[in-house]
Amino acid sequence: MAKTFTLEELKQFNGQNGQPAYVAVDGVVYDVSNVGPWAGGKHHGNTAGGDMSEAITHSPHGKAVLAKLPVVGELAK
């Protein structure tokens, strides 16, 4: 069963201090820990551990990259 993360819980997964790097997009939580551009939990001014639904709409790759990422849960509504 998929884990449900609150925004507060998601903040812990910021890719720093040995933590995995998770981001939420449209209610789905993805693991970006093994994505090179997300090294250290940061990518183009964005920090892992948050909801990137708005930010991804401004990225050149858009949501196409999400299909390649492991899903680790969902964001609580």
From TrEMBL:
Coiled coil: none annotated. InterPro entries: Cyt_B5-like_heme/steroid-bd, Cyt_B5-like_heme/steroid_sf. Residues 5-76 form the Cytochrome b5 heme-binding domain. Transmembrane segments: none annotated. SUPFAM superfamilies: Cytochrome b5-like heme/steroid binding domain. SMART domains: Cyt-b5. It comes from the Bacteria. This is Cytochrome b5 heme-binding domain-containing protein. It comes from Lacticaseibacillus manihotivorans DSM 13343 = JCM 12514. The lineage of its organism: Bacteria, Bacillati, Bacillota, Bacilli, Lactobacillales.
